[in-house]
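All the exercises in this workshop are built on plain-text protein records. A record pairs a protein's sequence with a compact description of its fold. The structure tokens are whole numbers drawn from a learned vocabulary of backbone shapes. Once this layout is familiar, the rest of the handout is easier to follow. An example says more than a description, so a record of this kind follows.
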Amino acid sequence: MIFEVAYGRLEEQALLVVESEKTLTAQQAIEKSGILDRFPEIDLKSNKIGIFGKAAKLDAELADGDRVEIYRPLIADPKEARKKRAAEGKTMRKGGG
């Protein structure tokens, strides 16, 4: 069975292949890939993960060919960013008139 483990930061991305004779959990694939040594900032207690873009738990069993993705924390809250852009847009329309 073949699995992939993906992680990226702004300046570097990695897609590592993990081979196993048996099915693995997402956490086992992550640990076996060696990605935790390559990117020491990854903390599986706080970083969220997904399988092909869908949120998953560390104990999720993988199917052959699955890609486990480790997500970085968000820099800004998306709701707050939208509110800020909307407020700036309203101000610009009123003042730019």
Residues 2-96 form a domain with the Ubiquitin-like (UB roll) fold (CATH 3.10.20.30).
